[in-house]
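User: ok so my PI wants both of these folded by tonight, can you help

Assistant: No problem, let's get them done. Here's the first:
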Amino acid sequence: MSIIARVFLEKSPFLKNFLKKYTGTEQDIDDIMQEVYLKAHRAEKKTKIEEPIAFLVQIAKNIARDELNKKARQATGFIEEHLEELKTEKTDSLESEQEAEESIRLYCQAIEQLPAQCQKIFLLRKVYGLKHKEIAKKLSVSLSTVEKNLKLAGLFCDEYLNNPANITPLNRQNAQTSPMRNQP
Protein backbone atom coordinates (compact mmCIF):
# COMPACT_ATOMS: atom_id res chain seq x y z
CA MET A 1 0.00 0.00 0.00
CA SER A 2 1.38 3.42 -0.93
CA ILE A 3 2.12 6.05 1.70
CA ILE A 4 -0.61 8.34 0.33
CA ALA A 5 -3.17 5.51 0.40
CA ARG A 6 -2.23 4.59 3.98
CA VAL A 7 -2.29 8.20 5.23
CA PHE A 8 -5.52 8.90 3.33
CA LEU A 9 -7.26 5.96 5.00
CA GLU A 10 -5.91 6.90 8.44
CA LYS A 11 -6.78 10.60 8.14
CA SER A 12 -10.10 10.34 6.26
CA PRO A 13 -12.20 11.29 9.31
CA PHE A 14 -9.96 14.31 9.91
CA LEU A 15 -10.15 15.37 6.25
CA LYS A 16 -13.94 14.97 6.17
CA ASN A 17 -14.27 17.09 9.29
CA PHE A 18 -11.93 19.67 7.78
CA LEU A 19 -14.05 19.83 4.61
CA LYS A 20 -17.26 20.48 6.57
CA LYS A 21 -16.25 24.11 6.95
CA TYR A 22 -16.19 24.50 3.16
CA THR A 23 -19.22 22.47 2.17
CA GLY A 24 -22.31 21.30 3.94
CA THR A 25 -23.46 18.13 2.25
CA GLU A 26 -22.04 14.67 2.77
CA GLN A 27 -22.27 14.04 -0.96
CA ASP A 28 -20.05 17.06 -1.70
CA ILE A 29 -17.57 15.96 0.95
CA ASP A 30 -17.45 12.43 -0.47
CA ASP A 31 -16.92 13.78 -3.98
CA ILE A 32 -14.10 16.03 -2.81
CA MET A 33 -12.51 13.18 -0.83
CA GLN A 34 -12.50 11.03 -3.95
CA GLU A 35 -10.89 13.81 -5.97
CA VAL A 36 -8.31 14.42 -3.22
CA TYR A 37 -7.25 10.79 -3.30
CA LEU A 38 -7.03 10.66 -7.08
CA LYS A 39 -4.94 13.84 -7.30
CA ALA A 40 -2.65 12.77 -4.47
CA HIS A 41 -2.22 9.29 -5.93
CA ARG A 42 -1.32 10.72 -9.36
CA ALA A 43 1.16 13.14 -7.77
CA GLU A 44 2.73 10.34 -5.72
CA LYS A 45 3.43 8.39 -8.90
CA LYS A 46 5.41 11.35 -10.27
CA THR A 47 7.29 12.49 -7.17
CA LYS A 48 8.00 11.59 -3.57
CA ILE A 49 5.61 13.27 -1.14
CA GLU A 50 7.57 14.43 1.92
CA GLU A 51 4.61 15.50 4.08
CA PRO A 52 1.62 13.37 3.05
CA ILE A 53 -0.82 14.77 5.63
CA ALA A 54 -0.08 18.38 4.75
CA PHE A 55 -0.20 17.47 1.07
CA LEU A 56 -3.66 15.87 1.41
CA VAL A 57 -4.98 18.81 3.44
CA GLN A 58 -3.71 21.31 0.87
CA ILE A 59 -5.31 19.39 -1.99
CA ALA A 60 -8.59 19.15 -0.04
CA LYS A 61 -8.50 22.86 0.74
CA ASN A 62 -7.82 23.81 -2.89
CA ILE A 63 -10.58 21.60 -4.25
CA ALA A 64 -13.07 22.80 -1.61
CA ARG A 65 -12.27 26.45 -2.37
CA ASP A 66 -12.65 25.79 -6.09
CA GLU A 67 -16.04 24.21 -5.42
CA LEU A 68 -17.13 27.12 -3.22
CA ASN A 69 -16.04 29.62 -5.86
CA LYS A 70 -17.83 27.59 -8.52
CA LYS A 71 -21.04 27.68 -6.48
CA ALA A 72 -20.66 31.43 -5.99
CA ARG A 73 -20.25 31.90 -9.74
CA GLN A 74 -23.24 29.62 -10.35
CA ALA A 75 -25.35 31.67 -7.95
CA THR A 76 -24.31 34.89 -9.66
CA GLY A 77 -24.89 33.32 -13.07
CA PHE A 78 -28.28 32.02 -12.00
CA ILE A 79 -29.31 35.49 -10.88
CA GLU A 80 -28.16 37.00 -14.16
CA GLU A 81 -29.85 34.30 -16.26
CA HIS A 82 -33.16 34.48 -14.42
CA LEU A 83 -33.65 38.21 -14.04
CA GLU A 84 -37.28 38.01 -15.13
CA GLU A 85 -38.15 35.36 -12.55
CA LEU A 86 -36.44 37.25 -9.74
CA LYS A 87 -38.41 40.44 -10.13
CA THR A 88 -40.67 40.89 -7.16
CA GLU A 89 -43.00 43.43 -8.71
CA LYS A 90 -44.66 43.45 -12.10
CA THR A 91 -43.86 46.73 -13.77
CA ASP A 92 -45.82 48.46 -16.47
CA SER A 93 -42.97 50.36 -18.05
CA LEU A 94 -40.01 49.04 -19.97
CA GLU A 95 -37.87 51.65 -18.23
CA SER A 96 -38.63 50.19 -14.78
CA GLU A 97 -37.78 46.68 -15.96
CA GLN A 98 -34.49 47.88 -17.40
CA GLU A 99 -33.67 49.66 -14.14
CA ALA A 100 -34.38 46.44 -12.20
CA GLU A 101 -32.15 44.41 -14.53
CA GLU A 102 -29.37 46.98 -14.26
CA SER A 103 -29.69 46.97 -10.48
CA ILE A 104 -29.32 43.17 -10.29
CA ARG A 105 -26.39 43.23 -12.72
CA LEU A 106 -24.62 45.86 -10.60
CA TYR A 107 -25.35 43.87 -7.44
CA CYS A 108 -23.70 40.78 -8.99
CA GLN A 109 -20.69 42.85 -10.03
CA ALA A 110 -20.38 44.22 -6.50
CA ILE A 111 -20.44 40.72 -4.99
CA GLU A 112 -17.72 39.57 -7.39
CA GLN A 113 -15.43 42.36 -6.13
CA LEU A 114 -15.67 41.42 -2.46
CA PRO A 115 -12.63 39.79 -0.81
CA ALA A 116 -12.80 35.98 -0.82
CA GLN A 117 -13.76 35.50 2.83
CA CYS A 118 -16.23 38.38 2.74
CA GLN A 119 -17.79 36.97 -0.44
CA LYS A 120 -18.10 33.47 1.07
CA ILE A 121 -19.76 34.83 4.20
CA PHE A 122 -22.10 37.07 2.21
CA LEU A 123 -23.14 34.27 -0.17
CA LEU A 124 -23.62 31.75 2.63
CA ARG A 125 -25.97 34.23 4.27
CA LYS A 126 -27.80 35.68 1.26
CA VAL A 127 -27.85 32.75 -1.17
CA TYR A 128 -27.82 29.73 1.14
CA GLY A 129 -29.70 31.42 4.00
CA LEU A 130 -27.37 30.28 6.77
CA LYS A 131 -27.54 32.00 10.15
CA HIS A 132 -24.58 33.97 11.46
CA LYS A 133 -23.66 31.25 13.97
CA GLU A 134 -23.84 28.55 11.29
CA ILE A 135 -21.53 30.54 9.02
CA ALA A 136 -19.06 31.14 11.85
CA LYS A 137 -18.97 27.43 12.66
CA LYS A 138 -18.76 26.34 9.01
CA LEU A 139 -15.83 28.67 8.23
CA SER A 140 -14.17 28.37 11.67
CA VAL A 141 -14.29 32.12 12.26
CA SER A 142 -15.70 34.21 15.07
CA LEU A 143 -19.27 35.46 15.08
CA SER A 144 -17.82 38.96 15.12
CA THR A 145 -15.91 38.25 11.89
CA VAL A 146 -19.13 37.07 10.23
CA GLU A 147 -21.01 40.17 11.38
CA LYS A 148 -18.23 42.56 10.32
CA ASN A 149 -17.91 40.94 6.89
CA LEU A 150 -21.68 40.99 6.33
CA LYS A 151 -21.79 44.66 7.29
CA LEU A 152 -18.81 45.41 5.04
CA ALA A 153 -20.39 43.52 2.13
CA GLY A 154 -23.71 45.30 2.61
CA LEU A 155 -22.11 48.72 2.76
CA PHE A 156 -19.94 48.02 -0.25
CA CYS A 157 -22.84 46.69 -2.32
CA ASP A 158 -25.02 49.68 -1.38
CA GLU A 159 -22.26 52.11 -2.32
CA TYR A 160 -21.54 50.20 -5.53
CA LEU A 161 -25.22 50.28 -6.53
CA ASN A 162 -25.44 54.01 -5.87
CA ASN A 163 -22.27 54.97 -7.74
CA PRO A 164 -20.43 52.07 -9.46
CA ALA A 165 -18.07 54.34 -11.39
CA ASN A 166 -16.40 55.67 -8.23
CA ILE A 167 -15.94 52.38 -6.39
CA THR A 168 -12.74 50.39 -6.49
CA PRO A 169 -12.61 46.71 -5.56
CA LEU A 170 -12.15 46.08 -1.88
CA ASN A 171 -8.67 45.25 -0.69
CA ARG A 172 -8.63 41.46 -1.04
CA GLN A 173 -5.91 41.13 1.60
CA ASN A 174 -7.87 42.85 4.32
CA ALA A 175 -11.58 42.13 4.48
CA GLN A 176 -11.93 44.38 7.52
CA THR A 177 -11.26 47.62 5.64
CA SER A 178 -14.03 49.92 4.63
CA PRO A 179 -15.09 50.42 1.01
CA MET A 180 -12.78 52.78 -0.82
CA ARG A 181 -13.63 55.46 -3.37
CA ASN A 182 -11.39 56.46 -6.25
CA GLN A 183 -9.58 59.67 -5.57
CA PRO A 184 -9.93 62.32 -8.33
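One down. Here's the second:
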Amino acid sequence: MRFRGSEFAGQFRAGQFRAGQAGAGQFGSAVSSDKAPGSGATSVPPAPGADAPARPRTVAVFAAVAVTALVLDVVSKIAVVAELPEHPMKRLRVLGGVLYLQQVRNSGAAFSLGTGYTVILTVVALIVAAVIIRAAKRMRSAGWAVALGLVLGGALGNLCDRLFRNPGPGRGWVVDWISLFGPDGEHWPIFNLADSAIVCGAVLAAILAVRGIDLDARSNRRG
Protein backbone atom coordinates (compact mmCIF):
# COMPACT_ATOMS: atom_id res chain seq x y z
CA MET A 1 0.00 0.00 0.00
CA ARG A 2 2.78 2.40 0.83
CA PHE A 3 4.48 1.70 -2.46
CA ARG A 4 1.33 2.37 -4.47
CA GLY A 5 0.70 5.66 -2.55
CA SER A 6 4.20 6.97 -3.21
CA GLU A 7 3.91 6.02 -6.88
CA PHE A 8 0.63 7.95 -7.16
CA ALA A 9 2.22 11.04 -5.52
CA GLY A 10 5.14 10.92 -7.97
CA GLN A 11 2.80 10.75 -10.95
CA PHE A 12 0.81 13.74 -9.60
CA ARG A 13 3.97 15.88 -9.24
CA ALA A 14 5.12 14.94 -12.74
CA GLY A 15 1.74 16.01 -14.15
CA GLN A 16 2.04 19.39 -12.43
CA PHE A 17 5.52 19.94 -13.98
CA ARG A 18 4.27 19.12 -17.49
CA ALA A 19 1.33 21.55 -17.07
CA GLY A 20 3.76 24.27 -15.98
CA GLN A 21 5.88 23.65 -19.08
CA ALA A 22 2.81 23.97 -21.33
CA GLY A 23 1.77 27.27 -19.71
CA ALA A 24 5.28 28.68 -20.13
CA GLY A 25 5.26 27.69 -23.80
CA GLN A 26 1.97 29.49 -24.39
CA PHE A 27 3.30 32.64 -22.67
CA GLY A 28 6.48 32.55 -24.75
CA SER A 29 4.53 32.23 -28.01
CA ALA A 30 2.34 35.19 -27.00
CA VAL A 31 5.42 37.33 -26.35
CA SER A 32 7.11 36.29 -29.59
CA SER A 33 4.00 37.24 -31.58
CA ASP A 34 4.53 40.87 -30.52
CA LYS A 35 8.01 40.89 -32.05
CA ALA A 36 8.75 41.85 -35.61
CA PRO A 37 9.10 38.84 -37.91
CA GLY A 38 12.69 37.77 -38.34
CA SER A 39 14.03 40.00 -35.56
CA GLY A 40 14.56 39.68 -31.85
CA ALA A 41 13.11 43.10 -30.95
CA THR A 42 9.55 44.18 -30.55
CA SER A 43 8.12 46.38 -33.33
CA VAL A 44 7.95 50.12 -32.61
CA PRO A 45 5.27 52.19 -34.35
CA PRO A 46 6.58 55.17 -36.39
CA ALA A 47 6.52 58.58 -34.78
CA PRO A 48 3.40 60.61 -35.56
CA GLY A 49 3.93 62.81 -38.63
CA ALA A 50 7.26 61.19 -39.65
CA ASP A 51 7.35 61.20 -43.47
CA ALA A 52 3.55 61.23 -43.45
CA PRO A 53 1.80 62.14 -46.69
CA ALA A 54 -0.03 65.42 -47.00
CA ARG A 55 -3.61 65.61 -45.82
CA PRO A 56 -6.13 65.90 -48.70
CA ARG A 57 -7.80 68.89 -47.02
CA THR A 58 -4.45 70.68 -46.63
CA VAL A 59 -3.57 70.07 -50.27
CA ALA A 60 -7.01 71.40 -51.27
CA VAL A 61 -6.40 74.61 -49.27
CA PHE A 62 -2.95 74.98 -50.85
CA ALA A 63 -4.31 74.51 -54.38
CA ALA A 64 -7.31 76.81 -53.81
CA VAL A 65 -5.12 79.65 -52.47
CA ALA A 66 -2.60 79.29 -55.30
CA VAL A 67 -5.27 79.23 -58.02
CA THR A 68 -7.15 82.17 -56.48
CA ALA A 69 -3.98 84.30 -56.29
CA LEU A 70 -3.06 83.41 -59.86
CA VAL A 71 -6.53 84.08 -61.30
CA LEU A 72 -6.92 87.42 -59.50
CA ASP A 73 -3.53 88.57 -60.74
CA VAL A 74 -4.10 87.51 -64.35
CA VAL A 75 -7.61 89.00 -64.53
CA SER A 76 -6.51 92.28 -62.93
CA LYS A 77 -3.64 92.64 -65.42
CA ILE A 78 -5.94 91.97 -68.36
CA ALA A 79 -8.29 94.71 -67.11
CA VAL A 80 -5.43 97.16 -66.51
CA VAL A 81 -3.94 96.62 -69.98
CA ALA A 82 -7.39 97.11 -71.55
CA GLU A 83 -8.48 100.16 -69.51
CA LEU A 84 -5.29 101.97 -68.47
CA PRO A 85 -2.97 102.79 -71.37
CA GLU A 86 0.74 102.73 -70.64
CA HIS A 87 1.23 106.49 -70.36
CA PRO A 88 2.62 108.65 -67.50
CA MET A 89 -0.46 110.86 -67.49
CA LYS A 90 -2.99 108.02 -67.64
CA ARG A 91 -3.59 107.15 -64.01
CA LEU A 92 -6.59 106.76 -61.74
CA ARG A 93 -6.69 108.31 -58.26
CA VAL A 94 -8.50 106.10 -55.71
CA LEU A 95 -9.41 106.46 -52.03
CA GLY A 96 -8.45 110.10 -51.83
CA GLY A 97 -4.93 109.47 -53.11
CA VAL A 98 -4.13 106.43 -51.01
CA LEU A 99 -3.92 104.43 -54.23
CA TYR A 100 -3.02 105.43 -57.76
CA LEU A 101 -3.75 102.94 -60.54
CA GLN A 102 -1.46 103.21 -63.55
CA GLN A 103 0.09 100.76 -65.96
CA VAL A 104 3.86 100.35 -66.07
CA ARG A 105 6.06 97.53 -67.35
CA ASN A 106 8.71 95.94 -65.14
CA SER A 107 11.58 93.78 -66.36
CA GLY A 108 12.62 92.89 -62.80
CA ALA A 109 11.22 91.07 -59.80
CA ALA A 110 8.62 92.12 -57.25
CA PHE A 111 8.49 95.86 -56.57
CA SER A 112 10.77 96.54 -59.58
CA LEU A 113 13.78 94.84 -57.98
CA GLY A 114 16.44 93.31 -60.21
CA THR A 115 15.46 95.09 -63.43
CA GLY A 116 17.38 93.83 -66.42
CA TYR A 117 17.58 90.22 -65.20
CA THR A 118 14.35 88.98 -66.74
CA VAL A 119 15.70 85.67 -68.07
CA ILE A 120 17.37 84.83 -64.75
CA LEU A 121 14.22 85.72 -62.84
CA THR A 122 12.19 83.48 -65.15
CA VAL A 123 14.44 80.52 -64.33
CA VAL A 124 14.32 81.33 -60.62
CA ALA A 125 10.50 81.48 -60.72
CA LEU A 126 10.37 78.04 -62.35
CA ILE A 127 12.68 76.59 -59.70
CA VAL A 128 10.68 78.17 -56.86
CA ALA A 129 7.43 76.77 -58.26
CA ALA A 130 8.94 73.28 -58.55
CA VAL A 131 10.30 73.36 -54.98
CA ILE A 132 6.96 74.51 -53.55
CA ILE A 133 4.98 71.86 -55.41
CA ARG A 134 7.39 69.18 -54.19
CA ALA A 135 7.09 70.44 -50.60
CA ALA A 136 3.29 70.17 -50.86
CA LYS A 137 3.62 66.36 -50.90
CA ARG A 138 4.34 66.33 -47.14
CA MET A 139 2.35 69.42 -46.16
CA ARG A 140 -0.02 68.88 -43.22
CA SER A 141 -0.16 72.42 -41.79
CA ALA A 142 -3.02 74.67 -42.93
CA GLY A 143 -0.93 77.74 -42.19
CA TRP A 144 1.88 76.56 -44.44
CA ALA A 145 -0.68 75.62 -47.10
CA VAL A 146 -1.91 79.23 -47.20
CA ALA A 147 1.62 80.70 -47.10
CA LEU A 148 3.06 78.53 -49.86
CA GLY A 149 -0.15 78.80 -51.89
CA LEU A 150 0.19 82.59 -51.89
CA VAL A 151 3.85 82.45 -52.89
CA LEU A 152 3.19 79.90 -55.64
CA GLY A 153 0.20 81.80 -57.05
CA GLY A 154 2.13 85.07 -57.07
CA ALA A 155 5.20 83.50 -58.65
CA LEU A 156 3.10 81.90 -61.39
CA GLY A 157 1.27 85.19 -62.01
CA ASN A 158 4.46 87.09 -62.75
CA LEU A 159 5.89 84.07 -64.57
CA CYS A 160 2.97 84.19 -67.02
CA ASP A 161 3.93 87.76 -67.93
CA ARG A 162 7.57 86.80 -68.48
CA LEU A 163 6.60 83.88 -70.69
CA PHE A 164 3.81 85.43 -72.78
CA ARG A 165 4.27 89.21 -72.90
CA ASN A 166 6.57 91.37 -75.01
CA PRO A 167 9.40 91.46 -75.88
CA GLY A 168 9.36 87.64 -76.04
CA PRO A 169 9.11 84.29 -74.22
CA GLY A 170 11.24 84.26 -71.09
CA ARG A 171 11.97 87.98 -71.49
CA GLY A 172 8.48 89.42 -71.08
CA TRP A 173 7.96 92.47 -68.90
CA VAL A 174 5.62 92.21 -65.92
CA VAL A 175 2.57 94.46 -65.72
CA ASP A 176 2.57 96.57 -62.51
CA TRP A 177 -0.29 98.89 -61.70
CA ILE A 178 -0.63 99.80 -58.00
CA SER A 179 1.13 102.88 -56.60
CA LEU A 180 0.76 103.72 -52.89
CA PHE A 181 0.32 107.26 -51.52
CA GLY A 182 1.31 108.95 -54.77
CA PRO A 183 1.60 108.49 -58.54
CA ASP A 184 4.58 107.01 -60.38
CA GLY A 185 5.85 105.11 -57.34
CA GLU A 186 6.92 108.28 -55.52
CA HIS A 187 6.74 106.71 -52.06
CA TRP A 188 6.73 102.98 -52.80
CA PRO A 189 7.62 100.95 -55.93
CA ILE A 190 4.65 100.22 -58.17
CA PHE A 191 3.50 96.61 -57.81
CA ASN A 192 0.71 94.18 -58.68
CA LEU A 193 -1.43 91.55 -56.95
CA ALA A 194 1.15 88.82 -57.60
CA ASP A 195 3.76 90.84 -55.70
CA SER A 196 1.30 91.30 -52.83
CA ALA A 197 0.61 87.56 -52.69
CA ILE A 198 4.33 86.74 -52.60
CA VAL A 199 5.02 89.22 -49.80
CA CYS A 200 2.00 88.12 -47.72
CA GLY A 201 2.95 84.47 -48.14
CA ALA A 202 6.56 85.16 -47.17
CA VAL A 203 5.48 87.09 -44.05
CA LEU A 204 3.14 84.27 -43.00
CA ALA A 205 5.89 81.69 -43.60
CA ALA A 206 8.26 83.71 -41.42
CA ILE A 207 5.69 83.83 -38.61
CA LEU A 208 5.17 80.07 -38.79
CA ALA A 209 8.92 79.46 -38.77
CA VAL A 210 9.42 81.72 -35.73
CA ARG A 211 6.68 79.83 -33.91
CA GLY A 212 8.44 76.55 -34.73
CA ILE A 213 5.64 75.07 -36.85
CA ASP A 214 6.82 72.66 -39.56
CA LEU A 215 5.20 71.77 -42.86
CA ASP A 216 3.85 68.58 -41.26
CA ALA A 217 2.10 70.65 -38.52
CA ARG A 218 4.50 69.56 -35.78
CA SER A 219 5.83 72.20 -33.42
CA ASN A 220 9.56 72.27 -32.72
CA ARG A 221 9.27 75.06 -30.18
CA ARG A 222 10.70 74.13 -26.80
CA GLY A 223 9.43 75.88 -23.70
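Residues 1-33 form one domain. The longest strand covers residues 99-106. Good luck tonight!
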